[in-house]
Specification:
The protein folds into three domains: about 25-190, Rossmann fold (3-Layer(aba) Sandwich), CATH 3.40.50.300; about 195-260, Helicase, Ruva Protein, domain 3, CATH 1.10.8; about 285-335, Arc Repressor Mutant, subunit A (Orthogonal Bundle). It is about 45% helix and about 10% strand. It has 14 helices and nine strands. It has helices spanning about 25-40, 55-65, 85-90, 110, 125-140, 165-170, 175-180, 195-215, 225-230, 235-250, 270-275, 295-310, 315-320, 325-335; strands spanning about 45-50, 75, 115-120, 140-145, 150, 155-160, 185-190, 220, 255. Strands 2-3-6-1-7 form a five-stranded parallel β-sheet. Strands 4-5 form a two-stranded antiparallel ribbon. Strands 8-9 form a two-stranded parallel ribbon. A hairpin with a 6-residue loop joins strand 4 and strand 5.
């Protein structure tokens, strides 16, 4: 399963371990190497990564590779819940604790006893929720909502967020004492645009899985269709790529996916241009000041650097998107 997250049936296999994941890109390989070390310990883990990079899948792979693999893996999304609901979901509640509480219910901490509790989007948690998590993590004890008896749970905690944790800490949006408790080992999942060497394998695996799931016999992509996928920056990462491939397979009649089956979202800049909204200079779209060089040469230079930035400095993909050879791109960059 090099570079992708699904088994040969096209459906998630919740038994996968870290041994099932490999990467030809250095940043992803480093992440997986550190994850393997983390799986051998009981230290709390914090996973940082953009939306759609596979944080939940990595957390489950770590659990399945650890000594706790036979015990439950319980995932919980920490965002968009009131403090009362957060209490009930995480720590459980007693019968009669609130209207509609007709029986005692175990929370996620109790459900994950002897196993792993995965708290996704933990940076979205309210200050009150952070304080309650801190106590449970620090002492391994908590109370059910409406209860008076301390409960205990032996839980290995893995947390994740797509938000800029360093900025949240600096602005006091996240408790530093909780951060130190949950980040025994910090893993950074690189976005898909930083994994160009994995992209072809990921695409092939996704096509094979989608074909099996839809009972089709897609054997590959046309050259133009492949180029479209390889040149796209994938802001939605693996989740977006999987959806695009699934759609392409669904609307393909033959055995080769053609360019018109590759349905990609317009960029923010294209959306703004389409609805007449002027691009924002803060977003790096190249708004011109009065004293800017307005020559065609300068305009070309600005465009080249914007495309290079979009592809995070990847000159091969930049050259392909611009319709230039790599040597021509290097020459233009040197000249500018």
């Amino acid at each position: 399963m090099t570079g992708y997250w699904f088994n040969g049936t096209g459906h998630p296999d919740w038994r996968y371990t870290l041994d099932d994941f490999k990467s030809d890109d250095e940043s992803m390989a480093n992440c997986l190497g550190l994850a393997r070390l983390a799986a051998r310990t009981d230290l709390p883990i914090l996973i940082l990564g953009e939306t759609g990079t596979g944080k939940t899948m990595l957390a489950r792979a770590i659990h399945n590779s650890s000594r706790r693999a036979a015990a439950p893996f319980v995932a919980f999304n920490s965002s968009a819940l009131s403090d009362t609901l957060l209490d009930s979901q995480l720590f459980g509640h007693e019968k009669g604790a609130f209207t509609g509480a007709i029986r005692r219910v175990k929370g996620k901490f109790e459900q994950a006893d002897k196993g792993t509790l995965f708290l996704d989007e933990i940076a979205d948690m309210s200050p009150a929720g952070q304080a309650k998590i801190l106590r449970a993590v620090e002492y391994g004890e908590f109370e059910r909502l409406g209860g008076e008896t301390l409960q205990e749970a032996d839980v290995r905690l893995i947390s994740a967020t797509h938000l800029p944790m360093a900025r949240y800490l600096a602005a006091d949006h996240f408790r530093k004492d909780l951060f130190y408790r949950i980040s025994g080992i910090t893993l950074r999942l690189p976005p898909l645009c930083e994994r160009p060497r994995d992209l072809r394998t990921i695409m092939a695996t996704a096509i094979a899985a989608a074909s099996r799931a839809q009972d089709k016999s897609i054997v590959g992509l046309s050259r133009e269709a492949a180029d479209r996928l390889l040149e796209y920056p994938w802001p939605g990462n693996l989740r977006q790529l999987q959806r695009v491939i699934h759609t392409a397979v669904a609307i393909t009649e033959g055995d080769i996916i053609e360019p018109d089956a590759i349905l990609l979202e317009a960029s923010v800049e294209e959306v703004r241009a389409g609805d007449g909204t002027p691009p924002s200079s803060a977003a790096g779209t190249g708004a011109l000041a009065d004293d800017d060089d307005l020559s065609l040469r300068a305009a070309e230079a600005r465009h080249i650097h914007q495309v290079l930035e979009r592809f995070r400095g990847n000159k091969r993909r930049t050259a392909r998107a611009l319709g230039l050879s790599r040597s021509t791109l290097d020459r233009k960059l040197a000249g500018h």
